[in-house]
Fold each of these.
Amino acid sequence: MKYSLDAFIKDPKIAYFSMEIGVRSDMATYSGGLGVLAGDTIKSTADLKLPVVAVTLLTKKGYFRQELDAYGRQTELPDEFDPQRFMIQLDERVTVRIEGRDVLIGAWVYLVESATSGKVPIFFLDADLAENAPQDREITHCLYGGDNDYRLKQEIVLGIGGTRMLEELGFQIRKYHMNEGHSSLLILELLKRYKKDIEEVWDENLVWDIEKVRSLCVFTTHTPVAAGHDKFSYETVQRIMGDIIPLNAVKEFAGKDSLNLTLLALNLSNYINGVAKKHGEVSKGMFPGYAINAITNGVHSFTWTCESFKRIYDKYLPGWANEPEIFVRVGRIPDNELWEAHMEAKKQLVDYINRETQAGMNYDTFTIGFARRATAYKRADLLFSDIDRLTRMAEGRLQIVYAGKAHPHDESGKQLIQRIYEVKDRLKDKIRIVFLKNYNMDIALKITSGVDVWLNTPLRPLEASGTSGMKAAHNGVPNFSVLDGWWIEGHIEGYSGWAIGPSPDVPADPARDADDLYNKLENIIMPMFYSEKHLWVRIMQNAIGKNAYYFNSHRMMRRYVTEAYIR
Ligand SMILES: *Cc1c(COP(=O)(O)O)cnc(C)c1O
């Protein structure tokens, strides 16, 4: 179909590149935090009418749909969606070289439309075209699927194909924002495009207009562990990508021994940031010599506020959705209405759980939520460190809601889910525990708004930011969390929520974390919930007024504009 992008190509744009972008639950173009953050980012740019376009992969077979058997053993099924339900396929085509073949790349456009009338297009790149060889048609099918070769092919399509597609569509781009290193091959395309026009040079590397390319690039890193950064041997690079620019130049910018996408982005970006203050510091330690800033993540307020809270915000804090700073006036909401809005959300969650699992949960029992990727460092089982102690203090007075997918190759993540199932069965009559399968954005909203406390127990300093706790705060649900990522900035003890374990300046100590978790739960949090409801509502209020007020993607995008984009 011929689709007119005229309204968008008038002025220069900031191009936001991300391997995954999650805009809605039924479009499986995301796996977790990174993709949901990207979706929230784009929604805020549309609300704020920023001159942005976004580029990602179509991945119409999704990440995976999670099935769990009676023992909590995970199997992965395809999670397909039909792009025609949501997007328009464009006629434009570009070509990338992969394994010596010309691979045609098309695009679908999804329009994020804001209530403010702002519109931002997301281009979903698609290699599944009849002209392509069968193996190439699969390149953009599965998010984080396949092997190392498959990943590099996807990154060629995203970075190089995406940059060419924007040009083909007629966009002028004034900044390329790489959301994580997956898209940094776009830098090679820019180096080639802006090559200096010099006839004879002594050193071949002098022809690269490094300053020009650098002035165009913004890089956000999300990963606080070295192993999390994509690397490819030059043998693989040569075989699959060939020469976009000569190999010796690639080595100069992306690493002598292997092509490191993070290094490439670090070397050629004008602005680099981590996703929370602490993560900025950790990244400086990992990459000495680079100027690394920090812009703490946020969530899209309207998306992550449940219906009952939208209603009281509309009534007492009109304008909140496009100006979350208005949460500063949260004290205008009467305590009883705040509590009733919470109980409405909690009832919806409990009803949903009882329908899905026959767990027999009830509305009045204190309920903890824990939902995120199932992987070892997140320690979903920290709460089970001493099951007898947990039972003694909480029997009949506690319910726990879990959810989360383990990456198909993450064996210890999968075992964590089985461990939760084991404890769930063992404590059946004492503490009700449920594990909701197939965690996605819909379930995330239900759980973050419907529980009484949001628990997070990462092993420091491995949580770069974390965003689910910010969703909870938008629904008046206080955080109870290890002091890592965003919570270092959001936490005021006994006021906006509670910390687990010591200050972030001292080394991590798992035994102390568990002890602190039990102590506070038994002596502070549960007693306040059951016997001092007026104090409890104060904390709920502060979660909104202190946490949702700040940890939203509108504030985050305003900072990207003033600190990264206008430079
Ligand atoms: C928000 C969200 C995440 C990120 O949660 P963290 O606690 O930041 O890890 C992951 N998956 C889904 C579906 C989400 O909605």
Amino acid sequence: MPVRPTSQSGLQPQTLAVTLGRPQAPGDPLNPPMVLSSTYRDGGPIGYAREGNAAWSALEEVVGALEGGSAVAFGSGMAAAVAVLDGLPPGCHVLAPAAPYHGVTALLRDLDAGGRLRVTTVDLDDVAAVDRALVDVATAGESAAVWAESPTNPMLDVVDLTALGRTTDRHGALLVVDNTFASPLRQHPLRLGADVVIHSATKLIGGHSDLLLGLAVTADADRAAALRRHRHGRGSVPGVLESFLTLRGIRTLAVRLDRAETTAGELARRLQRHPAVGRVRYPGLPGHRAADVVAAQMGGPGTMLAIETVGDALTADRVCAGVRLIVAATSLGGVETLIERRARNDGDRDAGVPPTLLRISVGLEDVDDLWADLDQALDRAVGRQSGPRSEPPPRA
Ligand SMILES: *Cc1c(COP(=O)(O)O)cnc(C)c1O
């Protein structure tokens, strides 16, 4: 049952997220079938299940259209990252920030230690420094790639992708952007100058904390073909059920984002006034260091925020232990609000994530219920009396 692309002309992204990736012939089911078969009768487009699946193709059609390229689905976000890095020439210099997703840091370190790639830490905010580093690599006659993430996990730093794209373009370096935190409905790195985008669809795209899946997207047909060959040859394929559920998740991504983003903004503003909070990191707060960049390159500030509590790591741990409605757990992007002290991970601690930083993935619960829970957990973490509030904070 072929899944043919619908005409995309003039349709809004949230419409495409609903309409693409569907079988089109009269009598077809509305949703792509879950074909549970490792092999196929000779003579068709797919011979063996590592080559393709109707559920992968449907998902790839949607994400490819939203990002503006050809999408390739993998078994996880890390599998997508491995596939992209595997496509770099041997000895390629990879410039990466000190604190991207910690799994990527560990992967880059392994590839550097094994001699496959050469990894240098750069501050991606300092485009002049990136430029100088790329000049050095070019002078040595070697190839280069820049690994960027924006907003970053867990620091919520924002990188000027347009400026970075101009620089990598000038030097013929590849620009890879991990777009997991923004999602394909809030930021389109390929249109800003990136060569490859990756997603952990485990997070916002899937949206229900019930699967692992990754995607790599590129507008370069050869690169897309290489990614597909990698998936087939290395076996880093997504599961059929996971692909089906990810597609089901992306159907509602627009409304989930709208709601969670509104709540995240409101919580960020209230958290700024809480005496147990020293700093709030949220790209949507007025006065954010990169407010201009956020406005220029993002369709909205997203659903992730981070706070630094007063006190020390124990204070922050007490907040995680004290929440009742919010779940203390890793991961993000699901319908339920999660909180985690990220520096409990060695990788994040070593990368300079503050010990008191709590990353909050905002879900779909009522904003006042979430606030009441955070408020009492913060109060108790610093030994404040958490009685009935005099006046509930106004809704913005
Ligand atoms: C979770 C995450 C990954 C890794 O994705 P998995 O699906 O867990 O393999 C990569 N980048 C970012 C920003 C993430 O949050």
